[in-house]
Amino acid sequence: MYNLVFLKKENDLNKVLKKFKREPRRCSILFISLWDKWCEKLVTDLKESYPEYRERAEPLYVVDSLKMPHSFVIYGTNKTPHLIQLRRDQVVSEDYLPRVYKSLKVNQAS
User: pTM above 0.85?
Assistant: First the structure.
């Protein structure tokens, strides 16, 4: 279960990362480019799978390359979609599209 949070400024992502360092919890960041048809479809599928806010759900921060191009340097993102899952003691990085869908527990509609 995820709560989708679309970040608009690079400062917002910096705040999320600082908060994670202070209070390590589960956190996921999805780097996308909305000009890409695969990323656009992924976002549509995410919105259908997680339409409303759930209190105990993990936040999924969505970072768009058009709004926040410099943020892609943080985790060496050079391919989209790129999912980063931050856990207490590890960082899991995934950029293979079927595995991104599987990690996010979203059905890949045809």
Answer: yes
